[in-house]
Amino acid sequence: MKVCIIGTGYVGLVTGACLAENGNDVWCVDIDQAKIAGLKEGRVPIYEPGLEDMVKRNLTENRLRFTTDMKEGLDPSLFVFIAVGTPPMEDGSADLGHVYEAASQIGSLMDGNKIVVAKSTIPVGTTERIRGIITERLAERGRRGVEFDVAFCPEFLKEGAAVEDCLRPDRIIIGTGNERTAELLRELFSPFVMKENRFYTMSIPSAEMTKYASNAMLATRISFMNELSRLCEKVGADVGQVRVGMGTDSRIGSSFLYAGLGYGGSCFPKDVRALINCASSKKVDLSILRAVEEANRTQRQFFLDKMIGHFGEELSGRTFALWGLSFKPHTDDLREAPSLTISDALLSRGAALRVFDPVAMEKARTILPDDGSVTFCSDAYEALEGANALVLVTEWPQFRRPDWDKIRDLMKPAAAVFDGRNQLSPAHVRALGFSYYGIGRG
Ligand SMILES: NC(=O)c1ccc[n+]([C@@H]2O[C@H](COP(=O)([O-])OP(=O)(O)OC[C@H]3O[C@@H](n4cnc5c(N)ncnc54)[C@H](O)[C@@H]3O)[C@@H](O)[C@H]2O)c1
Question: 84 CB under 6 A from ligand 1?
Fold first, then answer.
């Protein structure tokens, strides 16, 4: 089948590559000329396990094409996916400018019949607005006879496992009121759910709401555990043990119950805010979600307070080694990453930073200050040289079993370890002479 994907970011590029991998002809369109020029040569601008090989293979086999010319992608395609960004506005609402611009371009350029599918995360009513914009543009061109339908298919991939999630999704939600559109979308996506039928077809508003509701629920679980972790510390309980005790209850399940530094990334923070904003515009108060957001903010401060409690408010002359900068392991995405809040707070108190991340160093260099206060290191141990503290920020697997003798030699005497992800053994670390601070570990 022939597919045009508009927006070649985390969602668009992964979806395009996976559809090409399953034998479809895919045109990926983006307004970012440098990105498209690189992709044409097989250079993938994001780190996502398995993606680069898949892109290169499908490029070579001519099933995957990249262009900045939307018409080139639109003309041959039956399906047109909109996968552009929907970043947060100042008031928390989703900025739909890119989505509407893409819809306008589609209406201005399309000639044959199309199924336009929104994949970006968009508030209820946006898919119908896309239909309206395309209809207006066609009418302006005197092309009312060009038939098209719109649908909404929310994207549930997780950065760091995006290819795997796209190829083997838990479910595929199709928001449409049109049975023929649903049938065609099921045909397109059927290779991804060969083992069992995992399609759920529902109304467009229900599908739009499902995406926000899913992210809001996951964020709620994280904030709930983070708040509990603070109480665990006060009463001498271990949030890790509590997690296991709770998560083994089949009514609760074990996912997203890890206490840590709060959720970050490009989705949870913005989607929680957008849902709160949407609700308040309809005079509905989502008090639980407001609390989820607040708990997320205070969790980072809770962790910073441990460092201030140990070293005092003034941190000049202190060096902190940060392990992990991306908002979670296996991605180089730094959007709303806890590392940025922590580094800002430490730098503003005069600390020096030595940072290391297995894949996010290049992006970090474009965000963190280059005034000499931050040293970008080439491995985890180099970051520890002369440091007063190790701060484990992102739970990359390689940080779990470090060489503690080497660490002791590299760091200043009586150094402290701040384990923002409860990855290390407190007893072991303390036995080696370090001060240890975790999250909610009794
Ligand atoms: N990143 C995720 O893990 C994830 C998961 C599920 C859903 N989503 C949602 O998917 C959407 C896309 O997210 P992303 O992380 O892939 O965004 P991104 O910022 O990585 O990529 C968006 C791309 O769209 C391009 N673009 C913008 N306007 C365009 C236009 N008019 N024509 C062509 N290209 C255009 C940009 O240049 C950019 O390359 C968002 O709504 C997001 O909330 C993201």
Answer: yes
